[in-house]
Amino acid sequence: MIIDRINNWFTLSKQYFFTYRNGFFNLSYLSNSPELIVKSSAKMPFMKHNEERQVLYADTPFVKGEFYYVELEEGLWIMKSDMFYKNNVSYQPIYDKFLPSDYYFISINSIENELTNDTYEFNNVKIKNHSISFSKPATDFLNGHFKGATEIMYILYFNQEWAKKNILESTTTPDTVKQLLNDTQKEFLNYSYDKKAFKDLIAQLSTAFNHKEKPNVFELKKLTYTYFSVFFDSLEREDNVNSNQLSYGDRIKIGKIEHYLSQNLFQKFPGVDNLAKDHKISPTRLKENFKIMYGSSIFKHFQANKMQLAEQYVKNTDLKIKDIAAKFGYENVSKFSQTFQKCQGILPSEYRK
C-alpha cells in the first residue's frame, strides 16, 4: 500500500512539471473527472479562475486561451476549450488511482495551423483540420499541437452510470454506439468529420458558451442531445470505429509529417516513398498510421488542404484563376478547377462570383 501511494504521488506530481521530448513540451493534467480537471487546473501557475463565469483563463509559456465548463446534470458535463499554442505542446492525462476514473469523453476539434511560407500575398493564412475524439474512462493517450496553432474543442464528459442509463439502456441508441462502449479493445478514437454535418451544432454551441455573463445552461443542455445524435450518426461510417492505438512516437511522427505537408502546399505531392524515407518509417506503416490519425489517405489529405489554401486565394486576391492554378503547380487550369470543385463543392470561377 505504501509503495502504491508513493507511485501514485509520483504520477500526480507530473501535473506540476513538464518534459521535453521529440520537439514537444509534454504537459500532464489530472483527468479522473471533469470536476477534478477544473479544480486541479485552477491551482496551476499562470491560471486565473472566474467561478461565476465558469471559465479558466490560461496564459502560460506554452499556451494562451480560455476553458469554459458547465455541469449539466449529475454525471454529464460540457466544456469548451479555445487555446493558442506558443510552442509545440503535447498533452497527456494522468489519474489518481485512489479516486474514481469513470468518465467517457467526446470532443469536436477544430485546429487552425498557421502557414509560415513567405510568399503569401495576404495575412493570416491558416489551414483547418477537423476531427472527433472519443475516449473511454482512464485511457492514456497523447495529442501533439504545433506552435502557432489555434484549437477550439467542444467536449462532452459523461460517466459510466449516466451512459448506462441514457445510452446503453436506450432502445433508440444505434448498435454501433453500444458496441463501441462495450468493446474493451477500443479505448480511443480520432477521425475526421464532415464539416457540414457539424456546422450548425458548432455555431449554436459557440453562441451558448458566449451568452452574456455566463454560459447558457438551458440551451447547452438541449444542444447536448443534438451533439450525441450527430456523434452517433458519424459513427455509422464503418471506418470510424477502427481503434486508434498508435504509440506516442508514432503519433508524433505522423503529426510531424502532416505538419510538413501543410507547410508545403505550393509544392507537388512528394510521394509516400519519399516521405517515408525522410521520416524513417516504412511506406506501408506510414499509409496505415496516417489513415488512422487523419481518416483519409495522405494524398487526399494533402490535396484537401491544398484546395483549402487555394480557396483563400480565390477569395482574398485578384489573381486570375489560371495564375492561382499555376501557383499551386497545375499546368492545366481545367484540372485545377475540377480538383477545386471536388474538394470545395464549387468551381473556383463560380465561388469568386
Model description:
- There is one protein chain.
- The termini are far apart.
- The protein has 353 residues and is an alpha+beta fold.
- It has an eight-stranded antiparallel beta sheet with strand order 3-4-5-6-11-8-9-12, sandwiched between helices. Strands 1-2-7-10 form a four-stranded mixed beta sheet.
- The model has no long low-confidence stretch (mean pLDDT 87).
- It is globular and about 60 Å long.
- Strand 5 (63-73) and strand 6 (76-85) form a beta hairpin.
- The protein is built from 13 helices and twelve strands.
- It has helices at 2-13, 34-42, 160-168, 175-182, 195-209, 217-235, 248-262, 272-278, 283-294, 298-316, 321-327, 333-344, 348-352; strands at residues 18-21, 24-30, 47-50, 55-59, 63-73, 76-85, 89-94, 103-114, 126-135, 143-145, 150-159, 188-192.
- Helices cover 42% and strands 25% of the residues.
- The longest helix is centred in the middle third of the chain and has 19 residues, at 217-235.
- Helix 5 (195-209) packs antiparallel against helix 6 and helix 7 packs across helix 9.
